[in-house]
Amino acid sequence: MSAAAAATAETLAVNAADGHRFEASLYRAAAESAPVLVFLPALGTPGKVYRHLAAALAGEGVQVCLPDWRGMASSSLRPSRRVDFGYRELIELDVPALLDELAGRLPRAPVWIGGHSLGGQLGALVAAARPQVRGLVAVASGTVSLPSFSPRLQRGMRLVSAIASASGPLLGYFPGERLGFGGREARTLMKDWTHVARTGRYEPAGSSVDYEATLARLAVPVLTLNFERDSWAPAKVAALLMSKLPACRQSQWIWGDAECGGRSFDHFSWIKAPQLLAPKLAGWIRDSSGMA
Predict the structure, then answer these.
(1) How far apart are CA 148 and CA 233, in angstroms?
(2) For residue 7, what pLDDT is reported?
(3) DSSP readout, 127-141?
């Protein structure tokens, strides 16, 4: 497939069970039976940010689907005092609706899930709860637990938690776009984020699923890719996520300047190097899928 062809995305209109509507971009590979990676964005990040990586992966034989998070971009909802949601709605309503849509369009494609930062964490929860998911790829991600971060970032995360706790009752949402942390986020979503940061456990508000137990039973190939210069997703947080997946076949990549082509990637700058990441990620997914 040519680069021009791979760069053309197909727009999927998705309807969740509670009436939420959103869009996802599908980047097809030459073969319809090629693996399809559902790649979930970081907090406050629209799916289109990853379009160049998706196109590059499609050119390497891995199809990619980039959804928009509930509450932003194409989503029919916006966080407010009347509109609230958390991790449960994202992973138990939105992603399953997207997986159903993909199953109708690509019935022969093995489904993988992954994501960046929060997207990688929630991708793990989806993989644990959805048996059709064949594997997980988490980039610049890991379990957000305060002891895993530097003292400076721990202070910042505690401040974010305090603001989230206060802004929910006052505003009805978290004003992340004003603070430079995420975007305008739902109050329960930030409650879930704060809970993980304080406890290291995934226990989404309102969910009946024991995600800690399902993660421990998950048995699929898992790759974490982290960068030495990324203070927001250090190797410790990836290791903590992996510790929750003892039955999985694990691959942990820590890239320094040498692996990054002499550059220093932080939490977001790696997105600008799809030509570096795509061949290696696609190769790992193909190998783990049993493809030549």
Answers:
(1) 9
(2) 60
(3) HHH-TTEEEEEEES-
